[in-house]
Amino acid sequence: MSNPVYLALDVPQLDAAKALAEKVKGHVGGLKLGLEFFCAHGSHGVHEIAQVGLPIFLDLKLHDIPNTVAGAMQAIHVLEPAIVTVHASGGRAMLEDAKAAAGEHTKVVAVTMLTSLDERDLAKQGIGGTPHDHVMRLTELAHASGIDGIVCSGQEVGAAHKQWKDGFFVVPGLRPAGSAVGDQKRVVTPRKARDDGASVLVIGRPISRASDPAQAARDIEATL
Ligand SMILES: O=C(O)c1cc(=O)[nH]c(=O)n1[C@@H]1O[C@H](COP(=O)(O)O)[C@@H](O)[C@H]1O
């Protein structure tokens, strides 16, 4: 089985991001580039990181009216990302149009509820119920829209997987036992997420901030 870990390259400088990717490339299955990186380096930056030779996950978390999101999806065709994110709360028409505009080999996945949020945050947004309820509702919406899968925390991926057997599940908010949680609130270990059905494990700081990132990536790989 190929390595399900995608390293989140949340590093603003292109050279530093590339150097980090080169260090860990033998121990991860892909590289995730976020909005911070894309705003700073655009398509050129994505091409540079693609030279490392791993699949690219372009985490843009698009959330706008359907026409605008479809236009953005078309504009990134040329980059041939393996995975692109949109927000499930953009609604069914937005999800459908995002998928229709995506490249043939790009998986479109919808962020359900950010792993940095908990039930109290939901209540403050006027959304009742538990994170589990909210993620399940948005999973149903994403499934019905015909996109490829969702992003959720490891606390919900087991239930989401049962609800959507052939869905593609991206799980961030992962922490090896004993590592700092930081701003994440719904956290599990990489192993638990994989056992519960995650297709992709997104891991950033536990690798990128380690004194030896390659060793940290190897240690995580050994637990899977
Ligand atoms: O879409 C994402 O990748 C994402 C969704 C989510 O709910 N939570 C989340 O943390 N992420 C991303 O996953 C990565 C997690 O990084 P670490 O917390 O450093 O492991 C970051 O790049 C986040 O942008």
Automatic annotation (TrEMBL):
Homodimer. Substrate binds at residues 10, 32, 59-68, 115, 175, 184, 204-205. Pathway: Pyrimidine metabolism; UMP biosynthesis via de novo pathway; UMP from orotate: step 2/2. The gene is pyrF. Keywords: Decarboxylase, Lyase, Pyrimidine biosynthesis. GO terms for cellular component: cytosol. Its EC number is 4.1.1.23. It comes from the Bacteria. InterPro entries: Aldolase_TIM (IPR013785), OMPdecase (IPR014732), OMPdecase_AS (IPR018089), OMPdecase_bac (IPR047596), OMPdeCOase_dom (IPR001754), RibuloseP-bd_barrel (IPR011060). GO terms for biological process: 'de novo' pyrimidine nucleobase biosynthetic process; 'de novo' UMP biosynthetic process. This is Orotidine 5'-phosphate decarboxylase.
